[in-house]
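In the design runs reported in the main text, the only information available to the sequence generator was the tokenized backbone. The following block is the verbatim input for one such run; it is reproduced so that readers can re-run the procedure and compare outputs position by position.
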């Protein structure tokens, strides 16, 4: 049996302070992970689920396989995806200094700013998906 859990990945204050937690327990087991990066925290929560499965088996209990649906806060997002925060801010029409503060967890964005960031990232994803890159080397277009 496989259960799916929403997991929030967030950045705490400091350079290498990331956590990840499932919004619902699996039975009596709470799932959380920590690491020096978003990826490390995500790997840690996955490893914890494996450890819980082994522990449950030792106790004669059932523990399902767990699949995670990860969601990021602003700081964890920019750690996970290798985007230049300043360039992204300019593209989204957000003050680069403010977005850097959000990305490093020095400031917490209000809902309106989260919505603006989400819309900007959605537009970026859409623009990237439209095939804006040329299909062959530049010189091959010149005859």
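Verbatim output:
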């Amino acid at each position: 049996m496989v259960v799916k859990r929403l997991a929030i990945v967030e950045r705490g204050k400091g350079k290498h302070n990331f956590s990840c937690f499932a919004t619902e327990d699996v039975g009596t087991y709470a799932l959380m992970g920590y690491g020096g990066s978003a990826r490390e925290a995500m790997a840690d929560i996955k490893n914890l689920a494996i450890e819980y499965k082994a522990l449950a088996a030792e106790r004669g209990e059932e523990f399902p396989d767990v699949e995670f649906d990860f969601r990021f806060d602003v700081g964890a997002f920019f750690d996970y995806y290798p985007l230049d925060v300043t360039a992204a801010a300019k593209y989204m029409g957000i003050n680069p200094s403010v977005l850097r503060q959000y990305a490093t967890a020095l400031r917490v964005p209000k809902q309106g700013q989260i919505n603006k960031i989400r819309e900007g990232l959605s537009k970026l994803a859409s623009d990237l998906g439209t095939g804006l890159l040329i299909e062959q080397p530049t010189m091959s277009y010149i005859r």
